[in-house]
Amino acid sequence: MPPFDVPEGDPFGPHNLPYGVFSLPGSDRRSVGVRLGDHVLDAGAAAVELGSPYAALLARPSLNPLLAAGRTAWSDVRRALTAWVTVPAHREAVAPLLHPLSEVTLHLPFEVADYVDFYASENHARNVGRIFRPDAEDSLTPNWKHLPIGYHGRSGTVVVSGTDVVRPSGQRKAPADPAPVFGPSVRLDIEAEVGFVVGAPSTMGTPVPLGGFRDHVFGLCLLNDWSARDLQAWEYVPLGPFLGKSFATSVSAWITPLDALDDALVAPPGRTHPLLPYLDDASEEPGGYDLRISVAVNGHVISEPPFSTMYWTAAQQLAHMTVNGASLRTGDLYGSGTVSGASENQRGSLLELTWNGRDTLELPDGKRTFLEDGDVVTLTAWAPGPDGTRVGLGEVTGRVVAGA
Ligand code: CA
Prior knowledge:
The protein is of the alpha+beta class. The protein has ten helices and 26 strands.
């Protein structure tokens, strides 16, 4: 048997070890945990029990101290954790600190500092262009191939997987309507994305180059950028997304360290335009990640977006986000943008899947264009791991509930 009775081939085996924060029943005490199969290891308690020097980073109520500690500490802690869950000599000490996932409460694992969202899928950007600017000569805006487009979102409404999402209300006005009306969104959508979590901060005034990505970014997670398309359509010109997005962004309870994803690194799609030097990754290590995402509504898979198709990499996004001298803070989160592949069943939003409500999706429980109250949206994903294994990403799920 593999170490600690994790079934062979489990995507959450000792090759993965994503980090989260949990509490036990009847307790308010939050602890850093590491997922192993269908259990969570109380990593802080293990560090204390084993007299580890990393207890100061792990015996904490959030991941922030570990995130702030930087690349060398991340690698050292991961090496220690791997030993704790695989070396038989540690079994007696560690086994009592493994709790069934079904018995714990998972919390937002880090304090989100700034939240930025990008727009890095060419397929998604072209689909959106065709839907909203059907008469334009090019479905991409003129800047799209020259810089990773992004905007600053609302960090205070980033919520952990499992949190209900209240249908937002706001203004909407279709082009033919004489005046705007106020009410619950009638075009509530999802965006299947990957979120990158910044650990080590940077200095204001000093850009982070492409090669600094692994020194600053700790890991990644699945992210659902809930979007009210009707609110968004009326408000977004000229300053971009605002209330149509800021009501909720869901992230997984588990942050997968980049160190677990070395076998998933892939080259991004071929570049069609020359890039300015600070974004030119031709001579860099491959910056794409081969993550196979699945989107389900009420348990029914509606799409399987491939992250490997993203035109802009997370390293390019980080370089662009800091090239003006803006600094990074521990806990900064940036979303990749909606992940959409080339084919229809790889689109990461209902906007694209139903072509802005023109078409309907057939679900076992009825037709959909956009989300109805009670719908549960769940994103899952896996990536190639070492020796033919799979690295599972923690799911992100959320249920739509009616507004008050
Ligand atoms: Ca988005």
